[in-house]
Amino acid sequence: MLFPKKVKHRKWQTARLSKAKLERPETRGITVSFGSFGLKAETPSRVTAAQIEAARRAMTRAAGKTAKVWVRIFPDRPVTQKAAEVPMGKGKGDPERYVFEVRPGRILFEVDGVTEAIARESLRKAGTKLPVKTRVVAR
User: Fold this and answer.
1) What is the CATH number of domain 29-81+92-138?
2) pLDDT at residue 24 above 80?
3) Beta-bridge partners for 101
């Protein structure tokens, strides 16, 4: 699974984002840059490293050997959680997993080297593994 080799801060503060800020369209990573087809996010959500890996596996299996796949997101935000049955207080929990905060408009995956039908089907299968509504877009 994806996670950073080294981080400047082990624990991040919780972002107190309003719903309006989360649903504000993304400004970076919104165009298909590397491949011919891409998977674009339509709704905001936090995507975990395990979900990214599951989507990548589904996409590469459906696309075949000739396809070139790009993962355009990387989970660098730590999410902490306290252990089970631990009383309140005594500080913040330990980092449990890493996530990427997706906003609408972000390109998540790209694929090239296959026909349009195969590319659309593989990206659709990858989208079912993610907690966001997605749309397949062409260059």
Assistant:
1) 3.90.1170.10
2) yes
3) 46
